[in-house]
Structures are given as structure tokens and as C-alpha cells.
Amino acid sequence: MLSANVLQLGIKELRGLLRDPVMMVLIVFAFTVSVYTAATSAPETLNRAPIAIVDEDQSPLSGRIITSFYAPYFTQPQMISIAEMDRRMDEGLDTFALDVPPNFQRDLLAGRSPVIQLNVDATRMTQAFTGSGYVQNIVSGEVTEFLQGYRAESDLSIDLSVRARFNPELDAGWFSAVSGIINHITMLSIVLAGAALIREREHGTIEHLLVMPVTPLEIMVSKIWSMGLVVLIASSFSLVVIVQGLLAIPLQGSLLLFLLAAILQLFATTSLGIFLATAAGSMPQFGLLLMLVLLPLQVLSGGSTPLESMPGVVQWIMFAAPNTHFIILAQAVLFRGAGLDVVWPQIVMLVVIGAALFAFSLKRFRAFLK
User: Fold this and answer.
1) For residues 175 and 331, what is the distance between their CA atoms, to the nearest angstrom?
2) Is the distance from CB of 243 to CB of 249 less than 8 angstroms?
């Protein structure tokens, strides 16, 4: 009887979701367009940064420096006057503005130390931080080669052999695509489970359920399995079709092991979504609570920044969040090909945290129905 009621109530939730076009569009967008753009935008690397150059020297050396900036790191350098430099920076037209002073080549050959001015628009943080190092290395390299009269590699006392494992091309898109799927699993499971309960309350159907021979446990479990199933199917499609197919990103480990962990993650996060829905009186309030919970889960769980680089207090707090263990497991399985013998501690933690969230949410849900 319990399984039959849970099955029928879950099917009712799926039908209600199919009649909600906004949620359906959100699911499709999150696991297709959002994952693809996250992988192809590659915000961690310098790409087509706009640069302008003021050439007050008009020498062969300044010409070499100008021609050393090219795609894909920089756009075609814009040759401007000294009077235009500040205006263009204020208008946001250039991220970098390089000023080669008069008599730069002559002073350099005379043994002096002339200075090239580099102005950086630091509001574009990623490009400014990475690109300023690129500009300095390019200018230093061209000046050194000009003074030596030939192009040669530096004579190092040691030979450093670099071998990048798990991502040999150092392509940031590989990491961004999988991280996007992980974040969307968390976000949509919380949103769908919480919205399903709030939809019942706003439509008045929660009172209909209370007069039926069903228990709060059956109602809650039906919402968990139905909304979790939707996110699981969508994430599996995204992982196989978008990540492996369209983006051609190789995944090393077992997809079945990852999906098992995703089920445990969905069990925890859908329970959390129901708890937030019981604490919120309406959908706008649920949205505000979602921002307070979702942002720390995604930013501080190790998906964007390594957990080891965070303060110790934050690390201890985030070990109580399911996201932290799911991200560790997903990266180990999908990138490093880890097996169950490696990731079993994360699976145990997901089970424990999920059970705790479920019990806490069920207690709150029963109080909510009274």
C-alpha cells in the first residue's frame, strides 16, 4: 500500500511538472545550453583581450613589440595617441593600454633602463590578473631577443619535464562542463522539490491530500523520487550527449558509480528543498531562502575554489554539506578514474548527511501539515 501510494503521488508530481513550462525550460536550458557555454567560454584563460598601444618611439623595436600581440590571447592592437589612452580606458574600450616612450630603443642600446607604461583596467579581473603577466613576458622576451640579436631559449641549470595528468591539454572547459552539471544537479533538485510543495500549497491541493489515506512520509517520498528522477535523467543526458558527445570531453571513470553518487546527492538535496519550502510561505520567500543556501553550497564546497585553500573553519562547516563530498567524488571518478575503493568515504558521508536531512525535513514537514 505504501509503495502504491508513493508511486501514484510521484506520477502526479511528474504530470504537474510537465504542465509547468517555466520549469521545463529551466531544466532543458540548465543541462544543455548552460553546460555548453560554461565549457566553451573558458573564463579562466586569457582570450581576445582588447589592447591599445601608444607608439611614441616609432622604432624597429617598438614595431616588434606591437606585432607580438596576436590572437587568441589578444585582439588586433589598436594604435592610438597618448591623448586617447585615458578616454578609451574610461569608456571600457581597452583592457590594456601600452605606452612605449620616445627614444625607447636608443636609450636601451645606450645601456639605460627606459620604462614602458602599462595601464590595466582592473575591473575586468580575470583578464587583468592573467593578461598583465602575459604582456610583461611578451615585452621582456622581445626586448631580450632584440638586444641579443637572435632568438634563443634560456639556458637553465635543470630540465623540468612537465606531464599534466587527467587533463593533458590543460583545457579549463573540461572542468567547467562537469562542474556545471554538478551545480545544476544541486540547484534544480532543491528548486523542483521545493516548488512542488509550494505549488501544492498555492493551488490548495495540499488540503486534498490531507483527507486522503496517505501519510506525510508517503507525500514527502513521492516528491523526492519524482523530482530526483527528473534531475537524474537530465544530468545523465547532459553527461553523455553534451559533455561526451558534443564537447568531446573524455570521462575516465564509471558513469554508473557517478550516477549512484548522484542519487545519494539528490536524496539529500531534495530533502533540503522540502525543508526550505516548509520554512517559506510563498515562492518569492522560497527564492530568497534558496539564494542564502545555494550560493554557499556552490561557492564554498570546492567546485569553484579548492577546499584546501579556504580557512579551516569554513572547511569544517562545509564537510557537513552534501555538495562537498559529491564534488570530491565526482572529480575523482570522472577525471581520475577512481573506483569504489577510493570514493567509499564520500558515499558513506552522502548516505549519513542525506539520512539526517531527510529525518529533519520529515519532522518539519509533519509540523507543516498540522
Assistant:
1) 9
2) yes
Locate 287 and state its grid cell: 527564492
- pTM comes to 0.77
Q: Are the beta carbons of 226 and 302 closer than 8 angstroms?
A: no
Domains (range + CATH), the chain: 2-42+171-369 (no CATH), 51-148 (3.40.1710.10)
Q: For residues 187 and 346, what is the distance between their CA atoms, to the nearest angstrom? A: 20
Q: What is the pLDDT of residues 274-329, one digit of tens each?
A: 999 988 878 888 888 988 898 888 888 887 777 888 888 988 999 999 999 999 99
Provide, for the chain, the percentages of residues in helix, strand and coil under a 3-state DSSP scheme, each rounded to the nearest 5: 65, 5, 30
Please give the DSSP secondary-structure letter assigned to residue 132. Answer: H
Q: Which of 131, 264, 98 is nearest to 189 (CA)?
A: 264
Cis status, amide bond into 72, omega within 30 of 0: yes
The number of angstroms, rounded, from the C-alpha of 305 to the middle of its chain's C-alpha atoms is 10
More confident residue, 302 or 355: 355
Give the integer Cα–Cα distance in Å for 225 and 209: 18
